[in-house]
Amino acid sequence: MNSFSLGRYVPYNSFVHRLDPRDKILGSILLMVCVFLPISGWAMTFTMAGILFLLSAILLWCTHSSIRDILSSLRSLWMMIVFLLIIYVLMPHANPTLGVAWNWNGWTVYWDSFAEAGKIMLRLLMMVELTMILTASTKPLDLTYAFEWYLTPLKLLHFPAHEVAMTISIALRFIPTLLDDTNRVMKAQESRGVDFTHGRIWKRLMALTSLIIPLFVSAFMRSEELANAMECRGYNPKAKRTRFRLLHWHWYDYLSLVIVAAVFAFSLYVTITHFDLYAFFWGLTVL
Amino acid sequence: MKVISAKNVSYSYDGEHPALKDVSFDVEEGSYVALIGHNGSGKSTLAKVLMGLLSGFEGEVDIFGLPLSGKTLYSIRSRLGIVFQNPDNQFVGSTVADDIAFGLENRQVPHEQMDGIVKHYAEQAGMSDLLEREPQSLSGGQKQRVAIAGVLAMNPDIVIFDEATAMLDPKGKHEIASLILSMKQANPKLTILSITHDVEEAAHSDQVIVLNEGTLFLSGTPEEVFSHDEGLTKIQLDVPFLFGLKKALKQRGVDVPSSVKDLPSLEAFLWR
Amino acid sequence: MAIVFKDVFYIYNRKTPLETEALNGISFSIAKGSFTALVGRTGCGKSTLIQHINALLNPAQGEVDIDGWINAAEKKKRSKKVKDLRRHVGLVFQFPEYQLFEETVEKDVAFAPKNFGMSDEDALKAAHAALLSVGLNESFFKRSPFELSGGEKRKVAIAGILAFHPDILVVDEPTAGLDPLGAKAMMELFKSIHDAGTTVVLVTHDMNIVLAYCDSVVVLDNGKIVSITDPVSLFSQDIEKYSLETPLIYQLVKDLEQRGAHLDLTKIKDLASLADQLVALKGKVS
User: Fold this and answer.
1) ipTM of the modeled complex
2) pTM of the predicted protein model
């Protein structure tokens, strides 16, 4: 029997998989910020983007996501990329610095337009990559525990971090069960003459009530029985509980965080000081 | 020692029609009691009362000598383990190991001890190889075994099975039946109360309590209850095969001696 | 023949959480007006097979002929208008009470007839008749299905299928979770439906029911048919290897036969008839 993977989790044991989920969340956020830092100069922009893209691509490859999964998550993007390209090409550019791409009866298109579109495309790609690295290498439940850890300080403000985490973990556990219920009810109603796929919109909406109502009823019944069972097993949401699964920091978590922090620091430095690597090396060679 | 003592228990869901009327019985420590009756006989209601899920009942229920009430509920519950009917709706954890550990977490068992306890009871339930499995990949019988492991991990003095095999296929039913017997062997002081309509299962118990229309109809050993002349046929309850056959033979003039307690001895009696 | 399976294959669907069991070359037929049991261990392909009878699933290979409606792998060969088939074949799943959704019991039972083209009035009349036939009187008609007990809900669900008078009735474990009395009432209902002319296909684990009600048994194992016979012949075989339990009646009979006793199997259908035979046997001994 198989298990259902939510958000493209890949059951493998790469080093990315073994990293602590708290580490991965923080790392993803830091890298995501790097992607969107405004870097001046086209050469540096694309260099930095290139470095980040390469880094993300390597990490993604480590998670052993299938090419098919990667392509399908990009599928929703490519339409947007084409759209952006068209917009940028059609719009006149404010401060062109890269020269003319073509001049056609007065309609001038600068290379800058393509560069802008390229920059955005890379950013979108990396956003998808970074998210995929996180979801491919981390079980949804571990993500929940990590978020819970980050939200724990909020307990001081009476935010029920542990209860929210318990709610989410139960919800995750029941998703396959509820999907089974959905399938079962659909088949039962189809056997009673319901058509979920053909017919006018109005009819199909009515057909949905024969699916949604039983599912809601079933879900409520499940939750009532589950609550009884949890109560009988001594669960008290307000009380202190020990944990069977604990997250542990390892040396490799600290190391990867240091590396990511270094990349982040460097990106910030480049942004703030408008550091130009090529000018720097050019300057060195001149010396 | 009487672990459960019910005295004149009555309950009504709507205030008009009584689901339970004046039910009284005792359960001795270490016995395996089967509570049987039709759907609607009040056995589920009685189970809920015993588990403390229904307050406002009349009469008295003493568990370990403590009268069941709002105040004593938590301390009584900590000595009670319950396995419910729907295998999915009592599976809390994301994996087998997590679910067995759920009760331990609630009890604030130290983290270092949990792994050992989980593994020990998973083995008792025959689920050692499946510790990391998720519930959707398990059969009904397997999920119920996990539930039992989770209950045993809390070291209860009484385990209540609320129609725990009703939703299982024959294979699952057998798994649970043999697990119950091995539980009893491993811990002779463990009291087991099984609410069921499976009379074959009831035939293996120490004490059978029969409910009908909210009242106690019969109580005694399986031999007493199922051989009762008028008894169960009057309320249209099935009897286990062996007892039914013995009665049918008796009606036709063939008296089967009481030493015949199982199929092989019956066969020997019928044909040498 | 009411239902004919011709070399049907269905592929194990591992990718989804809603996986289905495989069928590895199913060829058999079900006679019109028969009461056939479909048995086998959990996972052998029973539920996949019955979903081919009303085209909830299409075969990956081969075809199923249901009274002329063809359920084939290729869309071209497949008959059009699946609704005609679904009106003809009533399929009741396990724990059907989960399909109830309408405000009142009568509306829910009238749901399928309306979907199959009956006018609102006729559908309601059919619903009332169906409810009475399952033992639910007028007091139930206007109640909400959600306030009923489990057993009552199940009756409503079954009435919902009976209301459009299918010629073929397929039921998957209708007695699951019911107490013995409820189970008996349910089976007697199906018996009367069968006696009225409906072809009944029953998926079950309960061999006692097979013995008492069915005239034919199809045994499935690993997506293949391993035996088609009548109940008496089936129980003379060793069926433990298919994870099937011989009814205790037959276990006793088989053991006695091994000891050298001879009993007339055709006369044994239940406890009473068994007792009669045993008394006769004892008479011979003493």
Assistant:
1) 0.89
2) 0.88
